[in-house]
C-alpha cells in the first residue's frame, strides 16, 4: 500500500512548520504553468480535465455513428454534434435569436416586458428576477418557488459601485456596445450606456453577497395578493404563464430580497420602456453568445474571459461542446460515464469513511464544552438523519420529453425549456429525496440543508482526494476532510439553522448560538487579515467565506478524529518518512494544490464564498494535532497561539 503523498510536488526548501501549503505543493506551483484557457489551475482542475477527456471519448464514439434520438445516448451525441458543426453555426447566423430580438423590439409597455421576461427565462435567458423551484425552507416536505434578485451582467453588485472594479466597468461598456452592434441592435453605443445605467440602478437594490447568505433574513413567504402589493407593476400571473407555470404556481412564493423587488418595481415605473428594451436585448445576446457565430464567441470571451478573469485563450471547441452536453444532459452523459469509470469498490470504501466521520462527529458533539445538553441532543438527532449519497443516482433522469436535432440554438432552447418544465412540474407533488443536484462526472461535493444530505459524485473519488490503493491517512486527510466539510455545513453559521428534517427552525439555545457566533466571529477576523501574493492589495472576506471556513475546520478536526478511529488500537506505520498524523495533514494540503491568475484571484476574492486554496490548506494552524504532528512552535510561520485557535467541532 502506498502513502498516497505526491512526493514530487513537495518543496524541501519550505518547512511545513512555516507554510504547509507551499511545503506540500511548492514544487508543483513553481513548475506548473496555468493553461492558456484557464484562470486558475489545481487539483480540482486536473480531475476535471481527466473527466473532460473521458467524456469526450464517450461523445466522440457516439457522434461517430448515427445517433438514435429516442435514447439518452443519442440525444447526447446529437447535441454534441450540433455544437461541433461550426459551418452550420456560421451559416445560421443569429437564427432564432433574431426572432427573440424582434420580440424585444416589439415591447411597448411594462406588461409586455414582464411577460416576455417569463418566456425568455423559460429558455435560459436571464431577466430581472430569477425564479427557482426548491424545497420550502420552512416546510421541507413541499416544493415552492423562490424569487431571487437578478438582472446584472457583471459578477455581483459590488462591481457597479466599488473603485476596485472601475477598470472592469470601463471595459464592460464597450463590450456591451460591441455585442449589441453584432446583433444589429440600433444605436449600440447609446444603448450600452443605457444598459449600464439600468444595471447600476438594479445593483443598488441588491443585497451584498454577505447579507445574501443569511437564510433567515432572506426568507419571506408571500401569497399572491402580498406579492402583487409588493410589486404592483410586475404582473406575476403573466410572468408565470410565460415561464410555462401553472396558474397557482405563485399562489405562495418565497421572496429572498423584498427591497430588491421594491426597487425593481420603481424602476419599471420610472425607466423608459426603450431603455428596458436595450437591456433585454443585451440579456438575449449575452445568454446566447456561446452558440452564435465566432464573432460573438470571441467578443464574449474578450470580456468575460480575458478582461474579467485574465484568461489568455478561449477553450477549444470540443471542450466547450463537452461542457454543454454535461450542463444540459448531465445525467444522460453521467450514466455512460459511471459505467466506464466508477469501480464498485470505491463506493464500498467511501461508505466506511462516511461511517467513521459520522461517528467522529457524534463523539465531537458530546465533548463540546460550549454546547449545552439540549443542543447536543438536537445536533446528534440531525446527524442521525443525514443521508449520504455516493457516486451516482439510483434512478437516472428521464429525458424522453426532450427533442434534439441538428440546430444548436434550437437544441439549447429546447434543453433549457425542458429543465424549466421539469422543475416547475415538482410544484404540488411529493419531494423527490433521491434527486441529485450534481452530475456523477462533477469534481465537487455538496450539502443540501433542505434535504439534510451529503453528496459525493463519482468524479471526485480519485487521487488526491481519494485513492482506493493508498494508506488511510491521506484518504482521511483528503476525501475524509471533504466529507467532514460537507457534514460540517449542516452545523455551520447557516446550515445550523436547519433542523433534522431540513426545516429552517432555531433548534439551538440562545446561549449556545451566542457561543457559536463568538467562535465564528474569531474565524472571520482571522481570515479578514489574510492577503494573497498575487493580489496583495485585496484581503480575504472573512464574513463571505465563514461558512466554508467553518466547514474546513470541521472537516479537519473531525476528519482527524475519524482517522484515529479507523486506526483502532494500532499505531499507523511511518511511510515515506512521515507519521500517520503527518500524512493526514499532507493529504489535506495536497487537495488544495492550485494557483490562479491575478485577475481571477481578484474576482474570486470579491464573489467566491470559498477562501483561496492556500488559505484553506493553512487553516490547519487552528488544529492542535497539526502543531503536535510537526512540532510547530513559537516563531514558526504556522504557529498560532493556543488561545487564538478556533475549534468548533
State the fourth-level CATH superfamily of one domain: Collagenase (Catalytic Domain)
Structural category: alpha/beta
Distance between the termini: 31 Å
Placed side by side, the strands forming the largest sheet appear as 2-3-5-4
Largest sheet: 4 strands, mixed
Q: Please state the overall shape, judged from the principal axes of the Cα atoms.
A: globular
Estimate percent helicity. Answer: 40-55%
- The CATH architecture designation of one domain is 3-Layer(aba) Sandwich
* Content of β-strand: 5-15%
- CATH class of one domain equals Alpha Beta
Radius of gyration: 25 Å
In short:
With 649 residues, the chain is an alpha/beta fold. The protein has helices at residues 20-31, 43-64, 72-84, 86-92, 96-105, 110-122, 166-182, 188-203, 224-230, 236-243, 258-270, 273-288, 294-309, 317-328, 330-341, 344-367, 373-384, 408-424, 472-477, 479-489, 510-528, 542-567, 580-591, 598-607, 613-617, 624-630, and strands spanning 40-42, 129-136, 139-149, 221-223, 252-255, 387-391, 446-448, 453-457, 594-596.
Descriptive key words:
649 residues, alpha/beta, Neutral endopeptidase, domain 2, Collagenase (Catalytic Domain), 4-stranded mixed β-sheet, 3-stranded mixed β-sheet, 26 helices, globular
Task: Give your account of this protein's structure.
- The model has no long low-confidence stretch (mean pLDDT 96).
- The chain is globular.
- The longest helix is centred in the last third of the chain and has 26 residues, at 542-567.
- Strands 2-3-5-4 form a four-stranded mixed beta sheet.
- The protein is built from 26 helices and nine strands.
- Helix 2 (43-64) packs across helix 14 (317-328), helix 3 (72-84) packs antiparallel against helix 14 and helix 21 crosses helix 22 (542-567).
- Strand 2 (129-136) and strand 3 (139-149) form a beta hairpin.
- It has helices at 20-31, 43-64, 72-84, 86-92, 96-105, 110-122, 166-182, 188-203, 224-230, 236-243, 258-270, 273-288, 294-309, 317-328, 330-341, 344-367, 373-384, 408-424, 472-477, 479-489, 510-528, 542-567, 580-591, 598-607, 613-617, 624-630, and strands at residues 40-42, 129-136, 139-149, 221-223, 252-255, 387-391, 446-448, 453-457, 594-596.
- The protein is an alpha/beta fold.
- It starts with 19 loop residues before the first helix and ends in a 19-residue tail after the last helix.
- Among the domains are: 95-290, Neutral endopeptidase , domain2 (Neutral endopeptidase, domain 2, Orthogonal Bundle); 344-383 and 462-644, Collagenase (Catalytic Domain) (3-Layer(aba) Sandwich).
